[in-house]
Amino acid sequence: MSAVSLIIRGQVQGVGFRPTVWRLARECGLTGDVKNTGEGVEVRLWGEMAERFEAILRDNLPGLARIDSVVRTTLSGAAPRTFEIVTSKAGGLAQLAVTPDVATCPDCLREIRDPADRRYRYPFNNCTNCGPRFTIVQSGPYDRARTTMAPFVMCDECADEFANPADRRFHAQPVACLDCGPRVWLEDLQTGACLQSADCPKTLAELILDGHIVAIRGLGGVHLACDATNAQTVALLRTRKRRKAKAFAMMARDPEVIRRYASLSAAEEALLTSPAAPIVLLYGAGEKLPDAVAPGLSRLGFMLPHTPLHHLMFEHLDRPLVMTSGNLSGQPQCTTNEEIRDRLSEIADFALMHDRDIANRIDDSVAAVELGRTRLLRRARGYAPQAIALPTDFPQEPAMLAMGSELKNTFCLTRKGQAILSQHMGDLEDAATNEEQRHNLTLFQSLFSHQAERIIVDAHPDYLSTRFGHEIAKGRPVEEVQHHHAHIAACMAENGVKLSDGPVLGIALDGLGLGDDGTIWGGEFLLADYLGYRRLACLKPVPLPGGAAAVREPWRNAYAQIVAAMGWLQFCDRHAAPDLVERFKAQPLATLDAMMRSGMNAPLSSSCGRLFDAAAALCGFAWERQSYEGEAAMRFEAAIESGTLCDEERAAYPFVIRTGDPLQLDPAPALEALLEDRLNGAAPGVLSARFHLGLVDALEKLTLILAHRQAIGTVALSGGCFQNVTLFTLLHQRLEAAGLVVLSHSKVPCNDGGLSLGQAVIAMARSRQRVNG
Mean pLDDT, the chain, as a whole number? Predict the structure, then answer.
C-alpha cells in the first residue's frame, strides 16, 4: 500500500477543489485527508491507487480549478480509516488563490427557472462553481464571517448544504436562499418611493422598454442601463452622464441576440459564455444600432448576463441594453445604495437596490479575440485577483510590491512564484480612484498575508503611483523601473520567458513614458531581458507643445509633426488644403512655436500614440480635443473600410529609417504623402489604410534589420498602441512569416494595466542577481 502527500498550488481554493478530492479519493478506495494550507491544498493519501491519484485528479478537476504545480513526498505511519476534509486553522494561513467572481453556472440557472425549486427566481443564487467571491471578501482568510454575507444567517437547509461535502454548495461562502439571503427592491430615484413589485427583475425590464434609464446594483458596482435600440434614450444617457463620445458597453440575453448586431465567431462566443463573462469587442454587422452607442467606431462591446438577477431581467428582453458604469464620466462607479441615491438620481429614473454590501469595487473586464487568442484589454471581473504563475526559474522570494502606472493603474504582489495583480482601478488623478487603490492594497496584503520586502515604482517621479510607493515604503528599499522596459518584461513573463533565456527584441509602442535621457518615449525598440535593456531604435522625437495639453488636443501634435517634417511655410505652399490651413490659423501657433523653440512645456517625444493623434487630426478626427483617451486613433483606425487594406496596399505611405544611435524611424514622407492624398480628395478611410500599412511596413523592416544585427529570433510586442487591431495583427503576422517568434499579451493588457507585472519581474530578476553576486 502506497502513502503520499501532495501539496497542490494553483486555483485550488474556493472552487470546489476539496470536495472533488474527497469524492475521487473515496471512489478510489483511498484513506487520508485534504485541507487548505498557506502553501496551497495538502492531500494525504493511503491506498493502492495513491500513486495514480494525481493523474486521476487532473482529469476530473472542477470547472474553475487550475493546477500550477504539485510537490509530492512519501508518507509513513498507519493509514487512517476514512478520507476526510479537514478544517484549516485560520492562524497565519493565507489564501494563495482568491477566486474571481464567476458568472452563474448552468445548475444555478436551472434552479432559478424551475418553479418546483426552492430557489426559483432568486436573484442571488450561487454555488461553489459560480457567484461572488472577490467582491464580497473584506479580509483574509476567506470565510463567511469575513465577507459581506456575514449578516445573513443561513437557514437550516442552506446550512446543511454548506456542511455536506457531497453537495455542490459545500463551503460556498455566499450560499443563501429566499428565506435567509439578500433581497432586492426598486426605487423611484426622483421621489424616493419604493415601487411595489412582486417580480422586480420583470418590472425593471418593463421600465427599460418604456424608455427609462435605470441604475442596477450588481456584483462589483452599479450599472446604468437603457434600451440600446432607442436612439433618444441613449442620447439622453450620454447627456446626463456627461459622456460625450466614449463607447457604451452592452448586454444581451444570449449569443443569438448579439448576432443580430455583430459578427460572432466560435472563439468569441466561447469567450462570451466563459465563467469570466467579459465584455467582448465585436465588429458590427446586421441590424444597426444608434450611432450614439459607439460613435465613430467599428467594434461594439457586448457581454452576456453574469448574475441570476441579469438572467431574470433578460427573460423579458429581446434586445440589447446599454450597460455602462454607474457614475459621472471620469469617476469610479457607485457601489452603495446611498451613492446611487446621491450621485445617480440626476442620471437614472429608477434603481434596483439590494442589501448585500459590495466590499470591493470591480469593473467589467474587456477582451477581444485576435489571431485566435483571447487578449485582455481590461483585467477585472472574472479574472482578478487570479494569480499568474511566473516562469519556472524565478525565485520563490523575496515578496515584491509593484505600484504600476498613473493611468489604467493596477498593482502587483509577488509571492511563492506567483504574481497577483489587482483589478483595473483606472486613472489615479481621480481622488476617489486614488483612495480605491489604498483600500485594495490593504485588502490584498490581508488576503495574501503579504509583506513586501521591496517597493517597485515607475521611473517617472511625478506619477502618483510612484509617490505612493515612496510614501508606504517606510524604510524599505524603493526601486525604479523604466516604463517601456516594464512593458516588455510583462510580455516576456506572461509568455513564460525564463530568467535563463536570452534577450528579446522588444517593440514598445504607447502614449508616453519617461525615458533615460529625460525625454518622453513611446515608440521604442529595446534589446531587453529582465535585468536590463538597450535602446536600439525609436520613432523620430518631436516636441509635445503644451505637454499634457498635447495629449488632450490632437491638433497640437499635428502641428508639431508638420513643423518637424517640412516646416509651416512648405506645408502651406505645397501640401495643405485651404480648410486645413484655416483650422491651424485659428489656433495660437505663435505660442506653440515659442514653446518648441525654447523647449519650455514642449518636451521631445518619440511617442507612437502622439503620432497616431497627429495623423488622425489631419484626417479630421477629434481635431480640437479628445473626449477620452485614444479617441482620435480609434476613430482613425475605424475609418478603414472593409477591403481597403488589400486594395490600397501598394500605396502604403513611406517612412524613412535614419542612421544614428539609436536608429530613428522618420514619419515625414508618410505625412507628406497623406497630406497630398488629402489635398486630392482621398477619403479618410483610404488615408488611414495607407498610413497604417506604411507604419507596419516600416516597423517590419526596422525589426528585421535589428533582429539580424543582434542575432535575435524572438520579438515581444507591448504598449497601448497594440490595442490597434490593424497594427497588431498585420505586424504580428508579417514578423511570424519572416521566421521570428512573436510574443504578445493575453493574460494581462498590453496597455498600462499590465505594467505592474513587468515592474515586479524586473525587480525579482535584480534580486536574484544580487543574491548570486
Answer: 94
In whole angstroms, what is the distance from residue 760 CA to residue 404 CA? 9
Q: Are 178 and 184 within 8 A, CB to CB?
A: no
Q: Are strands 279-283 and 249-251 parallel, antiparallel or unpaired?
A: unpaired
* Predicted confidence (pLDDT) per residue in 613-627, tens digit: 999 999 999 999 999
**What DSSP string runs through 469-492?**
HHHHHTTS-EEEE-HHHHHHHHHH
Pairing of strands 194-195, 321-325: unpaired
Angstrom distance (rounded) from CA 551 to CA 720: 14
Separation between Cα atoms, residue 619 and residue 637, nearest integer Å: 11
Phi, psi of 366, deg, nearest 5: -125, 130
Q: Is 97 in contact with 13 (CB distance < 8 Å)?
A: yes
Edge-to-edge, what's the strand order for the sheet holding 194-195? 194-195, 184-188, 350-354, 214-217, 222-227, 321-325, 249-251, 299-303, 279-283, 366-370, 373-378
Question: Tens of pLDDT along 210-244?
Answer: 999 999 999 999 999 999 999 999 999 999 999 99
User: Can you give the C-alpha Rg of the chain in angstroms?
Assistant: 27
Q: Which residue has the higher pLDDT, 93 or 82?
A: 82
Type of residue at 332: P
In percent, the amount of the chain with pLDDT more than 90 equals 87
What strands lie across the sheet with 66-74, from one edge to the other? 66-74, 2-11, 40-47, 31-37, 83-85
How confident is the model at residue 93, as a pLDDT? 42
The DSSP code sequence of 191-218 is T-PEEP-S-HHHHHHHHHHTT--EEEE-
- pLDDT of 645 above 80: no
pTM: 0.95
Contact in structure between 610 and 522 (CB atoms under 8 Å): yes
Tell me if 170 sits within 8 A of 158, measured CB to CB. Answer: no
The beta-carbon contacts of 333-339 under 8 Å, at least 24 apart in sequence, are 333/221, 333/222, 333/223, 333/361, 333/363, 334/215, 334/221, 334/222, 335/217, 335/220, 335/221, 335/222, 335/361, 337/217, 339/222
| 300 Ramachandran zone, left/alpha/beta (phi>0; psi -120 to 50) | beta
Pairing type for strands 533-539 and 373-378 reads: unpaired
Grid coordinates belonging to 660: 544614428
Reduced to 3 DSSP states, what percent helix, strand and coil does the chain have, rounded to the nearest 5?
35, 20, 45
138 against 486, higher pLDDT: 486
Neighbours of 736 (CB within 10 A): 13
With helix as H, strand as E and coil as C, how does 589-627 read? Answer: HHHHHHHHHHCCCCCEECCHHHHHHHHHHHCCCCCCCCC
pLDDT of res. 449: 84
Q: How does DSSP classify residue 667? A: -
Element (H, E) at 47: strand 40-47
Nearest 5°: phi and psi at 91?
Answer: -60, 115
Q: What angle do CA 42, 47, 53 make, to 5 degrees?
A: 55
Q: Which amino acid is at 724?
A: N
Per-residue model confidence (pLDDT) at position 96: 47
User: What's the confidence (pLDDT) of residue 91?
Assistant: 45
pLDDT at position 429: 87
Q: Are 292 and 227 in contact (CB under 8 A)?
A: no
Instruction: Return the DSSP state at 723.
Output: G
Strand partners, 74: 4
Scan for cell 504578445, then name that residue: 744
Is 50 exceeded by the pLDDT of residue 94? no
For 248, phi and psi rounded to 5 degrees?
-90, 140
Show Cβ contacts of residue 280 under 8 Å, excluding neighbours closer than 6 positions: 268, 271, 272, 301, 302, 303, 367, 368, 369
